[in-house]
Specification:
This protein is of the alpha/beta class and 338 residues long. The chain has a single domain, classed as Aldolase class I (TIM Barrel, Alpha-Beta Barrel), CATH 3.20.20.70. It is built from ten helices and twelve strands. The structure holds S-adenosylmethionine and iron/sulfur cluster (2 copies). The site of one iron/sulfur cluster has 11 residues, from loops.
Length: 338
């Protein structure tokens, strides 16, 4: 029988979720994540041997699972740019008691969804910041059309990934006027749009508090046309606050990490593309687990190291965020995923 060696941090938070960035590369240049001015031609992405190998990811996933992680989300960068990702999924899918999810920009989904399903992926989240083509192209900054992301969602739905979560980061003056269009489009479908407050992740996106559209404002804008009411969370620590339409059916989520932080229930550990463990999205540094593995450290010692780090964890960045904290060093989102 599998032994679970639970661990909790200084606020009694266990490890429940592990987010794994499988690549730091992306084919989009979303202005809030990988702005072109920084991630332009000549930007040095990690060479292949710096990335965790599939065997290394699989090994760490099993160690985290033995410590209580029950959900793994593959992310990036754009995870579908990592060659043969379905092979990794097939290995991770063997781990018992584990939900396997992925967050993708959807650009390659139509082509790859079937292989992901066959390999054993359970859930997909697709990021789509607007249904207005001009607005979307401006946000992804590589002129990628809405139509191809919608095709990806459609194919994924047909082969059984349903409901699909759709992530929309809302940025003041950029896509706020397309909130209602997004809500209308996915209302009465099984899919769940999650409106996300623009966050000060990394240091390259030039984040300013004025550019955040609060969850409250997003709700008010939707309420004005489509009455909604709050729903209870599905489980403790659910990041998105759930709402449902009062007429017809359908559900939306609000991720209010700036105006209504949820650090108290944060059970997420993150592994960067090069194998560093981060205990917070806003951390400056991570602990190098790759080096431990490449030095031949046994599983028991790696587990002990993770335990020590997690037990000392006191992260609550979003609860203590001020204009000043957001000037400190922070890892980029594309290294550790969302
Ligand atoms: N490339 C994939 C994608 O876009 O879905 C996966 C990685 S991406 C970093 C994961 C999620 O983080 C996406 O839904 C993205 O919109 C979100 N994200 C990135 N930068 C953000 C920011 N500054 N504020 C809020 N969400 C952000
Ligand atoms: Fe790429 Fe995702 Fe970041 Fe956009 S949000 S640049 S798609 S990693
Ligand atoms: Fe978790 Fe850090 Fe986000 Fe708080 S700020 S919810 S501790 S990742």
């Amino acid at each position: 029988m599998k032994k679970t060696l639970f661990v909790t941090d200084t606020f009694q938070r266990p490890i429940r979720d592990l987010r794994i960035s499988v690549t730091d590369r992306c084919n989009f240049r979303c202005t809030y994540c990988m702005p072109k001015e920084v991630f332009g031609p000549g930007y040095q992405f990690l060479p292949k041997d710096e990335l965790l190998s599939f065997d290394e990811i699989n090994r760490l996933a099993r160690i985290f699972n033995s410590m209580g992680a029950r959900k793994i989300r593959l992310t990036g960068g754009e995870p579908l740019l990592r060659p043969n990702l379905d092979r990794l999924i097939a290995e991770l899918a063997q781990i018992p008691d584990l939900e396997l999810a992925m967050t993708t920009n959807g650009s390659l989904l139509a082509r790859k969804a079937q292989a992901l399903k066959d390999a054993g992926l359970d859930r997909i989240t697709v990021s789509l910041d607007s249904l207005d083509d001009a607005v979307f192209k401006n946000m992804n900054d590589v002129q990628f059309p809405v139509k191809r992301v919608l095709e990806g969602i459609e194919v994924a739905e047909k082969i059984g990934f349903s409901p699909i979560k759709i992530n929309m980061v809302v940025k003041r003056g950029v896509n706020e006027d397309t909130i209602l269009q997004m809500a209308r489009y996915f209302k009465d479908t099984p899919h769940i749009v999650r409106f996300i407050e623009y966050m000060d992740v990394g240091t390259t996106n030039g984040w300013q508090l004025e550019e955040v559209v609060s969850a409250r404002e997003i709700i008010d804008r939707i309420q004005a046309e489509l009455p909604i009411e709050p729903l209870d969370p599905n489980y403790r620590g659910e990041v998105a606050k759930r709402w449902r339409y009062q007429q017809g059916h359908g559900e939306i989520g609000l991720i209010a990490s700036v105006t209504q932080p949820f650090c108290g229930d944060c059970t997420r550990a993150r592994l960067s593309a090069r194998g560093q463990l981060y205990t917070c999205l806003f951390a400056a540094d991570g602990f190098d687990l790759r080096q431990l593995m490449r030095r031949g450290t046994p599983d028991s010692d790696i587990e002990a190291q993770i335990r020590t780090i997690w037990q000392a964890r006191s992260d609550r960045y979003s609860e203590i965020r001020t204009e000043n904290t957001s000037t400190g060093a922070r890892v980029e989102m594309s290294y550790i995923g969302g």
